[in-house]
């Protein structure tokens, strides 16, 4: 039975995207319905569509385009691209957009990240719920008849426009020569990095730039420390100044210093925030609930106003637009810029780090040290079926302790004057994600182990 005839959309329509196993949970016939629904909900007469290097991506994106054209929308296909390249096209062309990718998920997965014109987010509360309901109604009663005048489907290359816009936002003309190792993880960084870096005064050492959606070397998920090991070794072996790791759709970027040590995304958020505040003479900076205490502290020290919000790109983008923020950062290495249509681009964050390092006399570890003030666990995932029950058990265990506060903006945050931790369910997998921070390493380690025992042994 085709996925489209037995589809359970509750399993693939997430908080801010579509994601599932192909063809088990969805297929090209379902993608075609999503294309029709996307046009109807956004009321678009033209859209832009791109895709990553997964084997299923060209077929799914073409089917989505057929569905969109059947509702009368003209479709611009930009082909292979990173997610931030799709957002750039949506912003520059002022068209709603759809990106076919499952980001860092394994090869059998695929998905759709959708946006309105100008890269404005489409999430559960901004159109995705209505898209799902339309598709469900069509699955039950049959697809709508095509309109009288079908839309056209044309191709366009936007890589030059994407690269030029990014390079216009950061001054890299006077930086010292840098040796940069980049691990693209066989993802879309292998497509975008050569173009963006071509004019920079850097010696580029590429790793896994071949586009391969089977991810033959390691998963394209730099949030998992195991997937940074190759990059860390190469940085040390090359005597490089910095290492960069992109995820599968290259919208996230992780940084490794000259010693091969990972740099906290919170430190990168604080560094980029300080640069954007200096450039703009102040402003609002968005950070999510589980970035380091360092981020709001440094934002205030540089004359900015920190605003905390939930995890997730649609929530961050909505808050960026509402508050007029100039920059936003997440613990997961998503970085959002007002000058990039409030969308996330790991590449622009990487350029900021190169610009800062290239005008700094010392190594990267010295530069980022001033932005990394506390001991943090990083994100630790635990496979948990009863996410609600385990979270409640953790809360109960800490409820009687003196000086403890609780926050439920995004999962459960438990805090005192000396430490905090956040435990939140994944939007896409049966996981609980734990982040811990404390004023010293010993306190952080003890707290981390205590919470993990409660989560995993309950």
From TrEMBL:
Entry-linked InterPro entries: A-D-PHexomutase_a/b/a-I, A-D-PHexomutase_a/b/a-I/II/III, A-D-PHexomutase_a/b/a-II, A-D-PHexomutase_a/b/a-III, A-D-PHexomutase_C, A-D-PHexomutase_C_sf, Alpha-D-phosphohexomutase_SF
Chain ranges passing through the membrane: none
Superkingdom field: Bacteria
CDD domains: PMM_PGM
Keywords for the protein's UniProt record, in alphabetical order: Isomerase, Magnesium, Metal-binding, Phosphoprotein
Magnesium keyword on record: yes
Occurrences of domain Alpha-D-phosphohexomutase alpha/beta/alpha (ranges): 11-137, 160-260, 268-374
Domain Alpha-D-phosphohexomutase C-terminal per the UniProt entry, residue ranges: 379-452
GO biological process: carbohydrate metabolic process
UniProt cofactor(s): Mg(2+)
GO molecular function, one term: metal ion binding
Pfam families: PGM_PMM_I, PGM_PMM_II, PGM_PMM_III, PGM_PMM_IV
Entry keyword annotation includes tRNA-binding: no
PANTHER family linked: PHOSPHOMANNOMUTASE (PTHR43771)
Family: Belongs to the phosphohexose mutase family.
Protein name: Phosphomannomutase
